[in-house]
Write a structure and sequence with these properties.
- There is one protein chain.
- The protein folds into two domains: about 150 residues, Creatinase/prolidase N-terminal domain (Creatine Amidinohydrolase, Chain A, domain 1, 3-Layer(aba) Sandwich); about 250 residues, Creatinase/methionine aminopeptidase superfamily (Creatine Amidinohydrolase), CATH 3.90.230.10.
- The chain is built from eleven helices and 20 strands.
- The strands form six sheets. Strands 4-3-2-1-5-6 form a six-stranded mixed β-sheet.
- The longest helix has 26 residues.
- It is elongated, with a radius of gyration of 24 Å.
Length: about 400
């Protein structure tokens, strides 16, 4: 949480942190700027002090909505500095020299936020060479990643609300499918034309807009063989057929930027084959085993091991035994959810990603079985909050039913 930033800075012996870049697609900046709706900004936080937002003058009122102290770039005549030279890097370094001098930024300073790698490399080297500052950074996870990993009650409620609206979209999609007629084992529109995966994607987009959500990473509505490849979005030309497994997965977000939710259901229209029914039961039993086992104080990797052990007893290959497998349980188990659709904590076998679960962690639980060569895939995904008492709350209440009866 944000109140952990000072502790994390102390651990790294940082005197200050600077978070910068464009706001869009920049979760670290969105986080420290309290979601200010500006185009781009710097946020500077000194150890033990409140952050300061530096924005353009035209964004000053949106910056002020963050509740933080605001400084505009006009105070340092950034435009004048840029006009005085054709070297944009020199102008930016001079602007930061003036800003850092006024704010007494010195010593060991951590830099965060998303930017072009080459641009960042040039700027950070110039800062260290010309401003006498020790430039520091973290390889993932950064101190901001670690602060973001646990959510306060306000953040948890925003994620919960996105989940409510996501469930509504999934429910409307199911009703949309059920509203179609069946001909030759496939769904058809009122005019008799076949319903395609592409048409379903378009309808889901309409439902998302209606609920004030977007899906920056794209909607997965994949059928049959495509459902057997975990991130296959689905072939838009395919006709929606009965009896084939359909994976419907989306990482939904507050429209225009903010907090995410992530949920998946697998279903078959009309009926399911015995092979899909068995795989579905195995995944269903696995997710319910896990939902009853999450608890603060346990290691995230232990749940990956638990999932692998379980599905292996049901006769499926896993990444626990073969790190290169592309069938069976061929993915990680889950990931944190927040200002990014994938963030801390992660659930895998990697020691670098192992995390002790804490109150405030919000993460997905998404075991799956994938068999593209056999023409199907199955995944179920819920979102779990570890509450203040250390116990799990499932934020996803959408039903888990394999067959949708038409």
């Amino acid at each position: 949480m944000k109140h952990d930033l000072d502790l994390l800075m102390k651990e790294r012996l940082l005197d200050a942190i600077v978070v910068t870049g464009k706001m869009n697609g920049n979760p670290p900046l969105y986080y420290v700027a309290n979601g200010a709706k500006v185009i781009r900004a710097h946020v500077i936080k000194k150890l033990g002090e409140e952050p300061v937002v530096i924005s353009s003058a035209i964004d000053r009122e949106e910056a002020a909505a963050s509740g933080l102290k605001v400084i505009t770039t006009n105070q340092y005549d950034l435009e004048g500095l840029q006009r005085a030279t054709s070297d944009r890097l020199s102008a930016q370094v001079e602007f930061l020299r003036l800003l850092f001098s006024d704010l007494n930024i010195k010593g060991k300073v951590g830099f965060y936020g998303y930017a072009d790698q080459g641009t960042a490399w040039e700027l950070l080297n110039a800062i260290q060479d010309q401003l006498g500052i020790e430039v520091c950074g973290d390889y993932e996870p950064t101190l901001i990643d670690l602060a973001r990993a646990t959510k306060d009650p306000g953040e948890a409620e925003r994620i919960r609300e996105v989940g409510r609206r996501s469930s509504a979209v999934m429910g409307m999609t199911v009703e949309f499918l059920k509203s179609h007629s069946v001909k030759n084992n496939a769904l058809v529109n009122a005019d008799g034309s076949p319903l395609t995966i592409g048409c379903v994607h378009q309808q889901i987009q309409r439902f998302l807009t209606q609920e004030g959500l977007d899906v920056p990473e794209g909607i997965i509505f994949a059928m049959g063989r495509d459902a057997g490849v975990p991130h296959n979005k689905g072939n838009p030309k395919d006709i929606v057929e009965l009896g084939k497994s359909i994976i419907f997965d989306f990482g939904t977000r507050e429209m225009g930027g903010g907090y995410y939710f992530d949920m998946t259901r697998t279903f078959c229209l009309g009926y399911a084959t015995p092979e899909v029914e068995k795989a579905y039961r195995d995944v269903y039993d696995c997710i319910h085993l896990l939902l009853g086992a999450y608890k603060a104080g346990n290691e995230s990797c232990s749940y990956m091991q638990m999932a692998c052990n379980f599905v292996e007893t049901r006769g499926h290959p896993t990444r626990g035994r073969d790190t290169k497998t592309e069938k069976g349980f061929a993915t990680g188990l889950g990931h944190g959810i927040g200002l990014a659709v994938h963030e801390q904590p992660f659930f895998s076998f990697s020691p670098a990603e192992n995390t002790i679960l804490q109150p405030g962690h919000i993460f997905t639980c998404e075991p799956g079985l994938y068999y593209p060569d056999r023409g199907f895939g199955v995944r179920l995904e819920d979102v779990i909050l570890i509450d203040s008492d250390g116990w799990p709350q499932n934020l996803c209440d959408f039903p888990k039913e394999l067959v949708i009866h038409l």
